[in-house]
Amino acid sequence: MSASPAPRRTLAVLAVLPLAFAAACGYGSQAVENTERAIPGAARTDGLDSVRIGYFGNLTHATALVGRHEGIFQKELGGTTVKYAAFNAGPSEIEALNSGSIDIGWIGPSPAVNGYVKAHGENLRIISGSASSGVKLVVNPEKVESLKDVKGKRIATPQLGNTQDVAFLNWAAEQGWKVDAQSGTGDVSVVRSDNKVTPDLYRSGSIDGAWVPEPTASKLVAEGGKVLLDESDLWPDQEFVITNVIVSQTFLDEHPKAVEAVLRASVESNRWIAAHPDEAKAAANAQLAADTGKALPADVVDAAWPSIDFTDDPLAATLRTQARQAVKAGLLERPDLNGIYDLAPLNRVLDAEGRDAVDDAGLGAR
Known about the structure:
five-stranded mixed sheet, 14 strands
């Protein structure tokens, strides 16, 4: 699926407050680095010895997980070695991009926006989509039977101002409930909790539910939770961006052929995921196990996988909506996001395959 093209018009959106729009589904800050072997005898792409790719260790980053596990990135880059860094949080990945430790990264919309605004638009560009949806409100069915029962309960989100936190605050406001965004107090108590810890909080009874991405949502279901709401049901066409591909502006300017090679691999990875869903689930979980030392339980992967839509379209119009929601919640002021997208390399890749171009919703490089 792909989003309907949005009108190309200037966006007056939002500047980030210190704690707002932080990591989207982060698990910490340490990165685990690994290196693939270049293909013997193959030419180096753009004359580079290596390209450094970052991603998170969760299922919404399965494009990168599968592309790595199946050797798709290395195949496209040929004699150029692919080096990988698996991150636990958005801010640390942005720091790595800014410092030159990675060149290209899979990341959620919130840290991408935060990084772009903090650097006044001089450090990165969003160059592709990767995944949509995969976020749910999961509750304790013994305490919450319907949506109206969420009022007065303790609901976890991953972090103050992150993508899911903003979405939950916006949804609560639409129910007519008052919540102080900074403290999380009000008609609903918002508990900011690392996704890694949230299942423990649920198990102990410290929270009554959580608005979280996969696989955390399915981990809660495995603990007896009930999916009360799938966030995709709140969006037109049931689509909203959860993972983008970003690139260092310097790397994009200096190594456009390498960027296009990585994008070809990303597009091929998403195509392979669509054509081989069972094998893709296994490949993503195997790479998670290699990165973290522990695979996800099969029932968690099976439950989580169908709710994630892997797409090359960055769904730029939904990023704009997410930013507006953050302003409405009082977590953001108005920044200038014009130029955050550069989709020209991706559209060249898509055009070579006879596919339609994707749209930047008026937020592209001019």
